[in-house]
Amino acid sequence: MSEPVIANRKPYYQELKQGRRYYWCSCGHSTRQPFCDGSHKGTGFEPVEYVAREAGEEVLFCGCKHTKDRPFCDGTHNNLPGGYAEDDPNSPENRAIPVVPTQEGPTAMLDGGCYVFSLDKAEYKTKGNFRYCRVISEAQGARYQSLFYGEIDAGASPIMGFGDRHVILFLAQGTGTVTISGREISAGTGDGVYVRPGEAFQVTPSGDAPVRLFISACPAAGEPEWRETMPDKFDAAIPRRVVGIDPARRQAMAARYFQMLVDKSIGSDVVTQFIGHIPKSKAEPHRHLYEEALIILSGEGMMWTETRKAPVKGGDVIFLPRKQLHSLEATAEAGMDVVGVIYPGDNPSINY
Ligand code: FES
User: For ligand 1, which residues put their CB under 6 angstroms from it?
Assistant: First the structure.
């Protein structure tokens, strides 16, 4: 059997009818993409049947025909020749897109509820020695996740929880102990930490060096629930809770790369955290089926939507609703380092 033909370098978005049988073209020859029209006869390829599980089910059927998750896109198209297209930020169309005027507050609004939030303009609250601000919430338009940024200069933070939400921490600076429902875990800069639904946690910096961290709660949650005492119901079925940066685990996405931090490999099935690098470039505008929080760790650039763009720099966070057309441009020679949290989803390389 020879290689399939690349019908399209991106997946096909489809909304399905519950119970209906769909036959995905695997050979790439069909003229009814992404579906079979019988053209595979004699090629050795067979169509792949998929029965829709629910009304209006949204799927991305693979167009490049090289996926390992047939019939769905798994991001393989990004690494095919020409699969991850770039865009010219200086094209006449792009030059006509205005920059969002400088804001008094922390939020620069783009199209479709997408925004850039600058931590250096945020209003902070305090709870004991914990100084924090809300970056993403339902009140700010999110449907699937909340994000807080917090700082602890010294000593144990208050004990906090988010009810039955999945909670993922990212330590942007500092080292210390994260106590999760009674279990003490060491973590440092660049680590992702997973707190299971129903658990509570507390962060204690090592020595005098402060800890700066991001806290994601999924699905979206309100304020942290402050606890007087540490519960002892650590979920021992998932003992591994910290995932650090490991260059050996990087996955290429054209000239970009990413590495999974907290993900399904340690029990986080619906929310996924990754760290990644974007070289100086502007991606072609695209969409995702997941809602995303993108923390800019270093570098600078521009976040683009259809009719607006906003500058971004280290310390900013981008909130990206599902299906919103967008493009992130890294403008510094050294590129941009980011941490993303996506929900619902387990693969940040799937785009359409
Ligand atoms: S379109 Fe084939 S893997 Fe994405």
Answer: 10-11, 62-64, 66-67, 73-77
